[in-house]
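Re: the 164-residue chain
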Amino acid sequence: MREESKIISEITKSESRLLYYLPEEIERAFAEGRGVVIRDGEKLVGFGLWDFYRDWTELHTLYIAPEYRGRGYLKKIVAEAAEKLKNQGRTNKLFLFTLAPRVASVAAAHRFKNASYFSLPLKTWLAIGKARANPKKLFAYFKHGFHIVDAIRAQLWVLDNSAI
């Protein structure tokens, strides 16, 4: 897993629209059951990670290698993530941010709704800010062209089953 964590970390570092994760963060996420990886034999096809912020869960870092895009792998990652979260009892309040139309389409297909940023409680926003304020991550965002304007424009998609 260590080598795969390094590969995933490098992908998150080089893809400007992904959250950057250090290899040890990725290893910890998989050890804690907060991620899925899709492979084609030995080839890494894609992955998805999530984090818990109080009673909300953020799906993030959804990635499909360019040569595998458009083949349904993103749906497979979201479905596998949903299954793992269901088994962990964490399916009540899910959210994700995206600018990618394909991710938005898959989110909508999984009953996520496009929502206002005010849909998330302040305590959840504070927890997100604390988690993302790691100095190593901030440096990587700026070094690799993280576009703060794009981050602000990202759409929030929410699945709140507790309201059903």
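DSSP finds seven helices and six strands in the chain.
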